[in-house]
Amino acid sequence: MAVTDDPAVSVCFVVTIDGIELGSFNTCEGLGCEVVLEQREEGGNNGHLWQLPTRLKYPNIKLSRPLTKDTEKVAQWFASMTTGFRRKTARIEARTGDGRKVAHWGLLEVVPVRWTGPSFSPDSPKVATETIEIAHHGYVMED
């Protein structure tokens, strides 16, 4: 296996919304799509059930990371919704530890759904993390 063909074992996910970088995240869940099928029975054909594709459905994407200075950018993005909202285009890049891009996904009409901040408790000293959840209406192919 050539060095350039090595699988990305340790990656981070850099998120950019309309050219504004929100920073890198450690985890990314929900990239994918599903074809919604409609089932139809045909009269007289008892041994077969038609499965007809109707539309594509996209799950929400959840990104998590430890708190960083980029947390302020996420807060500003969510706060900007109070004065009106325009759907934006996003880009998620998977990068290796040395910053080399492995893959990327362009997202259409991104809407912020949820931000979850850290829980602080003296009983459980953990790394303070944040999670953002975004919805989108499909993928855009880019160069």
How would you describe this protein?
With 143 residues, this protein is mainly β. It has one domain: Pnp Oxidase, Chain A (Roll), CATH 2.30.110. Helix content is 6%, strand content 51%. Strands 1, 2, 3, 6, 7, 8, 9 and 10 form an eight-stranded antiparallel sheet that branches. It has a two-stranded antiparallel ribbon with strand order 4-5. Strand 4 (34-41) and strand 5 form a beta hairpin. The longest helix is centred in the middle third of the chain and has 9 residues, at 71-79. It is elongated and about 65 Å long.
The CATH topology annotation reads as Pnp Oxidase, Chain A
Oligomer: single chain
Q: Overall 3D geometry?
A: elongated
Helix/sheet category: mainly beta
Question: Approximately how much helix is present in the residues?
Answer: under 10%
Radius of gyration: 20 Å
Mean pLDDT: 87
Supply the key terms.
143 residues, mainly beta, Pnp Oxidase, Chain A, 8-stranded antiparallel β-sheet, 1 helix, 6% helix
Explain the layout of strands and helices.
Layout (H helix, E strand, L loop, with lengths): L10 E7 L2 E6 L1 E3 L4 E8 L7 E9 L3 E6 L4 H9 L8 E9 L4 E16 L12 E7 L3 E2 L3
Antiparallel strand pairs: 1-2, 1-7, 3-6, 4-5, 6-9, 7-8, 8-9, 8-10
What is the structure about, briefly put?
This is Phage tail protein. The chain has one helix and ten strands; from the N terminus they run ββββββαββββ.
